[in-house]
Design brief:
Distance between the termini: 32 Å
Helix content: 40-55%
Oligomer: single chain
Largest sheet: 7 strands, parallel
CATH class of the largest domain: Alpha Beta
Strand order of the largest sheet: 3-2-1-4-5-6-7
Shape: globular
Strand content: 15-25%
CATH architecture of the largest domain: 3-Layer(aba) Sandwich
Number of helices: 17
C-alpha cells in the first residue's frame, strides 16, 4: 500500500457507498492522486457496500460504516443489521463517532450530499469540512431533513460539479454563491489508449449483432426514471420509424433499480416493436468497452448533475446528445461536442441522432472538439489539483472557523 510522506495532513474522505457509479469513482480517482502525489494521508469512510471496496482498501485505510472496526463491533452491527435497520443505523453512527476519536483528522471531505448523516456524525470542533455537491433536486429531496440541515450548516466550503448543481445548491440549500466553487468532473485520460479497448470494440459489436454498415447508439446508467431509460425507448422508436430498423441498434448499459427494471424496459420496447432493435445488457464492469463500440452516446437523463460518462465517451471518440435544462451536461456538450436538444424532446433527440449517424465527418468533428475539451479541462491533474488548492485554502483558514456544537445524538 502506498502512503503519503510523514507529517502530511490526514484527510478523512466520506463516500456515500463503494458502487461503481459516478461519485465513488470520482472519489477513487482523487484518492489515487492524493496517494501518488503524497500531499496528504487519506482515510476513507464508506457509508455502504460496493465493488470498489477493495480498490479503496489497496490505497489507504478504510472504515466500513455498516460493520465498524473490530470483530466485536462487527458482530454487534451485523446482528442489528439483520434485526432492525433503525437500530443498526443508530449503532453504526455511534461506532463511527467513537472510531473517529482514534484518527488524527485535519480536514473532512464529504464526497456527496448523500453523506449528510455521516458528515453530521463526524463533525468536530476545529476540523474544517468541505462538501462536494454532485446532486440535484431528486437526491436532495430523498435525504432526511434534519441530517441535510445539519450537514449544510456545518460545512465550511462547498464544491459543485457544475454550474447547474451550484445554482441548485444556492436555491435549495440557501448557500451563498461565494461559498461554492465549481470543479468539473475529471477522469484518467489514458483509459481510451489501450489496444485492448480498441480490439474489444469490434468484438463487442459482433456480439451485439451489429453488422457492417449498422450504427450503434448507447445509453448508460442505472435503469431509472431520472436517467430517462423510458425516454431512451421513445427515442429508439422515433429513430426506427425514420430509418430501416436493420440499420441501427440501441443498447442500454446499466443495472436495475427499485424504480425501473430491465424486464419492464424490455416489455416497453416490445410494445413499440423494438425487441430486435433495443437491448438492455444490465450492469457491466466493462462498460467502457461499450462506449468504445458505439457511434453516439444518448444521455437521456431528465436530471443529470453533470454526467461523467460524457467525458469517457469523448475519449473514445463518441459525441453526446443530451437534453437541455437537465443539469450540467450541456455545459460540456455545448454546440460543438455533440448536440443539446429541448428538455425531454424525444423527437429532437431522434433527429439529432439521425443527423450524426448519417455523417461520419460530422461525428468526427464533434468528437475532436469533445476530446480536446476533456484533455484540456477534465484531466486528473487539472481537476484534482483544483480540489487540493481548495483543501489547502480551507486548512489555512482553519483558525477562523466558528467553534461547533459537537454534541452527537447518535453517540
Amino acid at each position: 500500500m502506498a502512503h503519503a510522506r510523514p507529517g502530511r495532513h490526514e484527510i478523512l474522505l466520506i463516500s456515500n457507498d463503494a458502487s461503481a457509479t459516478g461519485a465513488p469513482q470520482s472519489l477513487l480517482t482523487f484518492v489515487r492522486w492524493l496517494v501518488s502525489t503524497g500531499v496528504a494521508s487519506p482515510r476513507v469512510v464508506l457509508a455502504a457496500r460496493g465493488p470498489l471496496e477493495s480498490e479503496f482498501a489497496q490505497l489507504c485505510p478504510i472504515y466500513r460504516v455498516w460493520r465498524g472496526a473490530g470483530d466485536f463491533t462487527g458482530r454487534v452491527l451485523g446482528s442489528l443489521e439483520r434485526a432492525s435497520w433503525k437500530l443498526h443505523r443508530f449503532a453504526s453512527m455511534a461506532a463511527l463517532s467513537r472510531a473517529q476519536a482514534q484518527w488524527r483528522t485535519s480536514l473532512l471531505y464529504a464526497n456527496s450530499i448523500a453523506t449528510a448523516r455521516e458528515t453530521a456524525t463526524l463533525r468536530r470542533s476545529g476540523i474544517p469540512i468541505i462538501m462536494h455537491i454532485r446532486e440535484l433536486d431528486t437526491v436532495f429531496a430523498s435525504i432526511d431533513g434534519s441530517d441535510l440541515t445539519t450537514a449544510l450548516g456545518v460545512t465550511d466550503q462547498f464544491i459543485a460539479n457544475s454550474e447547474a448543481t451550484k445554482s441548485n445548491l444556492v436555491a435549495r440549500g440557501d448557500i451563498a454563491p461565494e461559498r461554492i466553487e465549481v470543479v468539473y468532473p475529471f477522469i484518467d485520460c489514458s483509459i481510451a489508449g489501450s489496444a485492448r479497448h480498441a480490439g474489444r470494440a469490434a468484438e463487442l459489436r459482433r456480439e451485439l449483432g451489429v453488422t457492417a454498415g449498422q450504427k450503434l447508439l448507447i445509453g448508460c446508467g442505472t435503469i431509472h426514471r431520472r436517467k430517462g431509460t423510458d425516454l431512451f425507448i421513445q427515442v429508439a422508436a422515433a429513430v426506427a420509424s425514420q430509418r430501416v430498423a436493420d440499420n441501427v441498434k440501441l443498447v442500454w448499459v446499466g443495472g436495475d433499480t427499485s424504480d425501473l427494471t430491465r424486464e419492464q424496459m424490455r416489455q416497453r420496447a416490445a410494445e413499440h416493436g423494438l425487441s430486435n432493435v433495443v437491448r438492455f445488457v444490465g450492469h457491466r464492469s466493462d462498460y467502457l468497452d461499450y462506449l468504445g463500440a458505439a457511434d453516439v452516446l444518448l444521455l437521456t437523463s431528465r436530471e443529470e448533475p453533470f454526467g461523467r460518462v460524457i467525458l469517457e465517451a469523448a475519449l473514445f471518440g463518441r459525441p453526446t446528445i443530451c437534453f437541455g435544462d437537465c443539469g450540467g451536461a450541456p455545459e460540456f456538450v455545448r454546440h460543438d461536442a455533440g448536440r443539446v436538444v429541448g428538455r425531454e424532446r424525444v423527437d429532437e433527440m431522434a433527429a439529432a441522432a439521425i443527423e450524426l449517424l448519417d455523417s461520419d465527418e460530422l461525428r468526427a468533428s464533434l468528437w475532436a472538439r469533445a476530446r480536446q475539451r476533456v484533455l484540456e479541462q477534465h484531466s486528473v491533474e487539472a481537476g484534482a489539483s483544483r480540489i487540493w488548492s481548495i483543501v489547502e485554502r480551507t486548512l489555512t483558514k482553519k483558525e477562523s472557523f466558528p467553534q461547533r456544537n459537537v454534541t452527537n445524538r447518535n453517540a
